[in-house]
Each structure stands twice: as structure tokens, then as C-alpha cells.
Write a structure and sequence with these properties.
By secondary structure, the protein is mainly beta. It is built from one helix and eleven strands, in the order E-E-E-E-E-H-E-E-E-E-E-E. The model has no long low-confidence stretch (mean pLDDT 92).
């Protein structure tokens, strides 16, 4: 039996490299997660005849995401863009060139239920940057990095996207946990 609950905010966001169906790199915690907007991309058609619609076809073909975070994190940029990240005592340096390949990544988000009694976890196991990655700096505003992604079916048990509703507060992992609680 499904219990109704309401979820608010974005408590946690993690990104990892995607290596194969069901196989991911170490999950990286995104500092200051601000937005995880998910939308399903569909293809549709309709059959018309006798001055009416006789049939409607709709199929989910991909999932789209928009993420925003509160910090400029070069580790996140490196995961998303596939360039080269070098660190030393004085600075971090991220460089990307035209021969660098944008990799597939896995993205997971955690939304806490109102009253703190449940969690909703959203997992897109295989996605890639599909729109602009933006750093917008402007007067009297914080810099908020944002990016758009498109997820595809990874072919494994997680498929294109998984939404898991836990009955208690649960730590976010990639892949998603199968039991409640924190490790």
C-alpha cells in the first residue's frame, strides 16, 4: 500500500562517472545543491480518421535534467566535461580542449519528505551534458553554476531513470540504496 507524503527542497545531490550498465565511479557530493529539475522527453503521434482521433501514441525516449549548485567546484566540472584538472598549493586549474570527450555520468538527488519522515531519491544512471553549462556572474548576485543533461537507457536494471520512495530518512548513494538509513 502506498502512503501519501509530500517532499520539499533538495537535500543532497551526487554525481559519479558512468563506466557500464550498473557500474559507476565514486559518488561525488555536490556542494550547495540548489536545483534538480527532471522532465521526461516523449515522442508522440496520433492517428486521425473519420474527422476524429482514433489512436494516440506516446513513448518516453529520454529524460532531461537541469542542475544548479551554489559553488564553483572544479571537481564537478571535471566529472561533467572530461577535461584535465590539476591542483597545486596555489591553485586548481581545469582545462578542456576540442579533443576532450564529454563523458557519461550518473546523477542522484535526495528530496526529504515534509515532517522528516521519508525520502524521495531520483536516480538517472546514464546521462551526458546536453545543453549549456553556465556560469552567470552579475552585479549583487552569487555565481550559480547550472547545466542541462539528457539521460538515456543504460540497459541495466536501473534503465533510464529510477524514482525510489523510502519510508524513512535515507542516505543518498550511487547506485541507490535498497535499505533505509545512513551508513
Amino acid at each position: 500500500m502506498t502512503t501519501q507524503s509530500f517532499h520539499r527542497g533538495l537535500r543532497d545531490l551526487k554525481i559519479s562517472s558512468w563506466t557500464a550498465a550498473g557500474s559507476y565511479g565514486t559518488a561525488y557530493d555536490v556542494l550547495g545543491a540548489r536545483e534538480m529539475t527532471v522532465s521526461w522527453t516523449v515522442t508522440t503521434d496520433q492517428l486521425e480518421g473519420d474527422d476524429s482521433v482514433l489512436d494516440r501514441y506516446t513513448k518516453v525516449i529520454a529524460v532531461s535534467l537541469r542542475l544548479a549548485q551554489a559553488a564553483v567546484d572544479l571537481n564537478v566540472l571535471d566529472l561533467l566535461m572530461g577535461g584535465t584538472l590539476v591542483s597545486n598549493a596555489s591553485y586548481e586549474d581545469f582545462v578542456i580542449g576540442e579533443t576532450d570527450e564529454v563523458p557519461y555520468v550518473a546523477i542522484a538527488g535526495r528530496i526529504v519528505g515534509s515532517g522528516g519522515s521519508s525520502d524521495l531519491h531520483i536516480f538517472v544512471p546514464k546521462c551526458k551534458l546536453s545543453g549549456n553549462l553556465e556560469y552567470q556572474a552579475q552585479l549583487n548576485q552569487y555565481l550559480i553554476p547550472a547545466a542541462e543533461f539528457q539521460g538515456v537507457d543504460e540497459g541495466g536494471e536501473n534503465r533510464m531513470m529510477r524514482v525510489r520512495k523510502f519510508t524513512a530518512l535515507t542516505g543518498l548513494e550511487i547506485p541507490l540504496r535498497t535499505t533505509t538509513g545512513f551508513s
